[in-house]
Specification:
heterodimer; A: alpha+beta; Alpha-Beta Plaits; 8-stranded antiparallel beta sheet; B: 104 residues; alpha+beta; 4-stranded antiparallel beta sheet; 4 helices
Chain lengths: 461, 104
């Protein structure tokens, strides 16, 4: 084949696929439709808790539109990183939605379900053979980190997707998956240049964010022998060489080199040209095959349970001595927690963070002007402890000192902190942290992923 | 003297995965990009000083084909760890806005 065409339905399934643009894009007779449904951008909670970040109804609506478009043209659909984090529990969640959509449309579809959650004994074996290596920077990892993690997923590349497509499925539901791989798999399978295929996927995977101004619509990608073309479809959408170039370096530490399982996409020699009013041509993107096949690992582990208090300070006498005032309060709280909860809780078992909005909450240690004094500050007190009950007790023990810590300027009892809520504390439930920034070196390209083929629908009964 | 925010079409920060923060500075024209590049105001050392981080941890890229400069650093607090207050890393670029760009 000299050209493979695809539709990138949206940057994140559940964000609102635009059906009109999808129908319009079909005029170009695409070979497949793909959409990413996950991200780590929202934080570690989805992977840790097993829940999805997008509303189920929104994902279902988007899947139905994508599938209707695809059934109209009889082309396959690839959905990756389902349920936000792509662990098995998220795949199960997504498959329930898939079954509902298929039933409601009375279709019969062949579906490939590819799982990428890793079992712990397997990872322990890789770890002890030196086959789990850190990226830079990475948290400390040892055998216990694997056991402690709630879930660990491996990010699949094109290979498991290609195997599914070769089997002739209508729909691929993939666990954690490289976003561009969803778009690169089929062009590469047809022998088109890997650099152009990966690059087209890289810029298309966020949907219309590759445009000058993002909006309602879809992206058409064309991968050819000597170029890739990105064409937005939707009202007022336009790609320019700069918008495509800008998106090529979006959310990547290195603007030129993008690591995938099977190698590195190298954009150092690539160029972008305006093809017509709205489309952009990409040339010169290269792919350097890796000497070793690697699979990126993502893990999340619990750090306990959290309760927070939201409030603020307006008193200028307190604000001008904010740090000293807070230091006294923190010391008082630490002493009190130790006196009251010392039997259940050592100082290392819990953590209290004061986020001081108006001063340096947003930038923390990177804030260049933490000394500037605003007219009011917002304070979020975040207590993290091994159980929800303990976190809440600690938060409750923060309230009184905040309210009534005395200052020299006022004689008598003061109330120096404005609570937003009653009860002052909000229970946030279990919270998680990312526990891996590592790659695994499996012995084969396929051993970390498990594919199941199922036929769903009327004719399957 | 003009500052970077007067010249750039976009200055942004974002997570590049949970462990890295990346900063993009982009321009509408080659001329603007060249003005800033030639000024020498953007460098590893300038960034390290501005953000008070170790220069050895700062990566700096000049991307002429995108009319962009990029800095990347390890996140001071891993995304979502207790203490992190910018989950998407989107509000860390502000000090870059005020970098003075001398005309050369």
């Amino acid at each position: 084949m000299d050209e493979v065409r695809f539709i990138a339905a949206i940057g994140a399934l559940g964000g609102g696929v635009h059906e009109g643009s999808m129908q319009e894009a079909l005029r170009e007779r695409p070979h497949f439709i793909a959409a990413d449904a996950g991200t780590t951008d929202a934080g570690p909670f989805a992977l840790g808790s097993g829940k999805a970040a997008f509303a189920r109804d929104a994902v279902k609506r988007d899947l139905a539109i994508v599938m209707r478009t695809a059934r109209h043209a009889q082309i396959p659909v690839l959905i990756g990183s389902v349920g936000t984090a792509g662990a098995d529990i998220h795949v199960d969640w997504m498959m329930e939605i898939v079954r509902e959509v298929i039933r409601e449309h009375a279709w019969t579809l062949k579906v490939a379900v590819i799982r990428s959650e890793q079992n712990k004994p397997y990872l322990q074996e890789l770890f002890s053979s030196g086959r789990i290596v850190p990226l830079d920077p990475a948290p400390h990892v040892d055998a216990a980190s694997i056991d402690r993690s709630a879930r660990i997923v491996g990010m699949m590349g094109v290979e498991p997707l290609q195997e599914a497509i070769r089997a002739g499925v209508d729909l691929v539901i993939a666990g954690r998956c490289s976003d561009p791989a969803l778009f690169a798999a089929i062009p590469i399978m047809h022998g088109l240049p890997e650099g152009l295929a990966w690059h087209a996927g890289k810029v298309a995977e966020c949907g219309t964010m590759v445009c000058e101004t993002s909006g309602k619509g879809a992206i058409l990608g064309y991968v050819r022998r000597d170029e890739a073309v990105i064409r937005p479809v939707g009202p007022g959408l336009r790609c320019t060489p700069q918008s495509v170039a800008a998106h090529s370096l979006y959310e990547n530490g290195d603007p030129y080199l993008h690591k995938e399982c099977s190698g590195t996409l190298d954009l150092s020699e690539c160029r972008f040209e305006q093809l017509d009013d709205v489309a952009v041509r990409i040339i010169g993107s290269r792919f350097i095959p890796a000497e070793r096949y690697t699979v990126k690992l993502e893990g999340a582990e619990s750090v306990g349970f959290q309760s927070i208090i939201v409030g603020g300070v307006r008193d200028p006498f307190i604000i001008r001595q904010l740090d000293a005032w807070l230091a006294k309060i923190k010391a008082y709280i630490a002493k009190n927690v130790s006196a009251v909860l010392g039997n259940e809780l050592k100082p290392d078992d819990y953590k209290i963070v004061f986020h001081i909005y108006g001063r340096n909450a947003v930038m923390g240690p990177l804030e260049p002007h933490p000394e500037s004094v605003p007219q009011e500050v917002g304070i979020v007190v975040e207590a993290t402890a091994p159980t929800q009950a303990l976190a809440t007790k600690i938060a409750q023990m923060c309230r009184q000192p905040l309210l009534h810590a005395p200052i020299d300027e006022w004689k008598g009892a003061i109330t120096g902190f404005a609570c937003l809520h009653n009860p002052a504390e909000v229970e946030r439930g279990e919270v998680f942290r990312f526990s891996f920034n590592h790659v695994a070196m499996p012995r084969t390209k396929t051993e970390m992923f498990r594919t199941e083929f199922v036929t769903i629908g009327e004719a399957a009964r | 003297m003009r500052v970077l925010a007067d010249i750039a079409s976009l200055i942004r920060s974002k997570n590049a995965g949970p462990f890295v923060l990346t900063f993009d500075i982009m321009f509408q024209s080659d001329e603007d990009y060249e003005t800033v590049r030639r000024s020498g105001a953007l460098s590893v050392d300038a960034f390290a000083k501005l953000y008070r981080v170790n220069p050895d941890t700062v990566r700096f890229f000049e991307c002429a084909n995108a009319r962009a400069f990029k800095f990347s650093i390890p996140r001071p607090c891993v995304q979502g760890d207790p203490g992190d207050a910018d989950m998407h890393g989107g509000q860390q670029f502000i000090p870059l806005m005020s970098i003075e760009i001398p005309e050369k």
